[in-house]
Amino acid sequence: MFTGIIEETGTVEHIGSMKGGKELTIACSFAGETQVDESISVNGVCLTVVSQNGESFRVQCVEETLRKTSFVGISKGDIVNLERSLTLDKAIEGHIVQGHVDSTGTIIKIENRENDRLLTIEYPESFTAYLVGRGSIAVDGISLTVAREQDNYFTVAIIPYTWEHTNMKDLREGDTVNLEYDIFGKYIVRYMEKMQPGSGGTER
């Protein structure tokens, strides 16, 4: 479990092949503090550390992960957002993020304003029920608030600190980002679907 508050960015140093997937070696300042089997959110994807040293750690992406996330097109030198898993002594300053990417989205517009930037993202129509205005969403692992939403597009406002301390500043229009919709919204939608007549659910 994560909060969507990025600790720092890391750099993809090496990409190796494995049967049905990829191995990523990521350099960051806290690599020496990580442990094998530890979960780390990498651009919003919960991955497991399989080896580490003082300068980098290595994670594996299986075929399912590549199919559902932007990692299918990841390259050496890419900057990624990193967050270690939530512990009992950490405050939940963003929102509850599982690191289970629901879909990808495409940045269709970046607007530079005086105090912030607006990103408009297109996402699959099948997920529109999970997104509401002023609700939470994780974009590449960053906890953000939906400023506007219409059809299968939504807009988020990025404050200068977030822009400078994440990989947001490297994004361009047309880029793909990982999206995780609010877990509470997903549970509510699922419950309501099961309560529909003929769904097989049991109303209590």
Termini Cα gap: 30 Å
Structural class based on helices, strands and sheet pairing: mainly beta
Question: Helicity level, as a percent range?
Answer: 10-25%
Q: Please report which band the strand proportion falls in: under 5%, 5-15%, 15-25%, 25-35%, 35-45% or over 45%.
A: 35-45%
Strand order of the largest sheet: 1-2-5-4-3-6
- SSE string: EEEEEHEEEEEEHEH
Strand runs, count: 12
Structure description:
- Strand 3 and strand 4 form a beta hairpin.
- It is built from three helices and twelve strands.
- The model has no long low-confidence stretch (mean pLDDT 94).
- The two termini are 30 Å apart.
For the structure shown, list the relevant keywords.
six-stranded antiparallel barrel; 12% helix; six-stranded antiparallel beta barrel; 3 helices; mainly beta; 204 residues; 12 strands
In short:
By secondary structure, this protein is mainly β. The protein is built from 3 helices and 12 strands.
Explain the layout of strands and helices.
Blueprint: E1 8-18, E2 21-27, E3 39-42, E4 45-52, E5 56-61, H1 63-68, E6 79-84, E7 103-112, E8 117-122, E9 136-139, E10 142-150, E11 153-158, H2 160-165, E12 176-181, H3 183-194
Antiparallel strand pairs: 1-2, 1-6, 2-5, 3-4, 3-6, 4-5, 7-8, 7-12, 8-11, 9-10, 9-12, 10-11
